[in-house]
Design goal:
The protein has three helices and six strands, in the order βααβββαββ. The protein is of the alpha+beta class. It is globular, with a radius of gyration of 13 Å.
């Protein structure tokens, strides 16, 4: 069974949700066009943004073996993310509605 980890992407401090959404859309478009095989390792996206301490975040479920390529691209595109605990894994059945939606590939 494929295992997934939770990857939390973060806005810049005081960046608006709308601006962060736009940067995420640009990033995921880049991944889809430049790295389609790595993009396919992203299974689900949280249905809602979260905000804490002036930072907006969005969570994704990513195959464990897809995190290295993803974090390399995130860093290269200037998208911040929290440290990933690759020992804290989930099955695809834990990323379900109403909190998550599966990304169509």
């Amino acid at each position: 069974m494929t295992e997934y980890v939770c990857v939390t992407l973060q806005s810049k401090p005081r960046e608006s949700e709308a601006a962060f959404k736009a940067r995420l859309a640009s990033f995921w478009t880049h991944m889809l066009r430049a790295h389609p095989d790595d993009y396919e390792k992203v299974y689900a996206e949280a249905t809602a943004f979260e905000t804490a301490g002036g930072v907006v975040s969005r969570q994704y479920m990513v195959e464990v073996d897809g995190t290295a390529a993803l974090t390399r691209e995130l860093g290269g595109q200037g998208v911040d993310f929290l440290p990933i605990d690759e020992d804290d894994t989930y099955s695809k059945y834990e990323a379900t509605s109403p909190d998550w939606f599966q990304i169509e590939h």
